[in-house]
Amino acid sequence: MNTDHKRLAYLFRRYFSQTVTAEEEQELMDLISRDGHTEELKALMDEAWATYKTDMPLFSPGQSDAMLHRIMQEKENGEETAVRSRKGEGKRIRWLRAAAVAALLILPAAGGFILWQRARNPLKTPVASRTMPPGDDIAPGSNKAVLVLANGTSIPLDSSGNGLLTRQGSTRVLKLRGGQLAYEAQGEKRKASDEVSFNTLTTPPGGEYQVVLPDNSKVWLNAASSLRFPTAFTTGKREVELTGEAYFEVAEDKDRPFEVKVNDMHVKVLGTHFNVMAYGDESSVKTTLLEGGVKVSQGETEALLKPGQQADLDKSARHIRIRKADMEEVMAWKEGLFHFDGDDLPSIMRKIARWYDMEVSYEEGLPAGHFTGVISRDNNLAQVLKVLELSGIHFSIEGRTIRVKQ
To answer: Which segments constitute the Protein FecR C-terminal domain (predicted)?
Structure first.
């Protein structure tokens, strides 16, 4: 690491911890304005996120807005020189640095956000990010789900009290604190000939929930998802059906394999931890293995996964591709985060729409570019869109629709 990079790292950490002096702050801005620090700055931002603590001193919204305005103003003041670049790259690189610093400034106040625009085409000149009126804002998702019993009875879990919800044969169905549903088998082990009921747990857009199945396997459901499962596992295998996305921690039972059915695809496991993403509006079904081993099959095609691998089933080609998984990105939703890693805007907006229960409308076609970033899912919608606007894309909220304009 050369002298400039060492100094940049020192000043960056001082700024992030809010111990920087006025002179050091100006020196940091001067270093960022130079060429050659883009990758170093990104690495520092990644480090800042990894060590971020919720109990650290936070900037007030007013302070963040003031600092953001200053960065944007400095960008605009320096743009004339950059525009003279023959290849047009000067303006883009200068904006990348400005966006990175602005994202840093918002990081503590917005619950942790790191944004990086990697579009190859020059970006349009952005305007300073604005704060949307409170009436336009949308709260984030929460623990919301509906349990549909075998007889068709619906139980809205977010409005039901904790404790015993119902009994189904020898199984007690309980609502626990913290957004959790649990099935407890009572008495002796059921026989294979006993009648088994099937329940369905459904999360709406803007909802998530956890269920402990009768075999003590744990399942976390993401927004706009559903899980169909028996009230007791009595046969030679444990089978559930999934739509949407869920993370599984399967209780070990060598005599009864666990199987997740997603349309005509099957994920077969014993004792393991894995995530399945199978939304209808996505082009593929992704199964990611954290621990143990699973076999993914579709028709005559099957694949064995090792920990750290992801099976990507293309819905149109019916082809399974195995690749190394980005675990932070896969598990972000369960940890209360959005995680973007080279995502295009439509992919990002699908995630946002599910969590905030919104529709998305593109008024001028799909903006080009790829984004990398992390942000807390606890933020209101306006806070998320405010930072995304740093890329030069503009948003407005009209009822339950997010309108996107380049």
So the answer is: 338-403
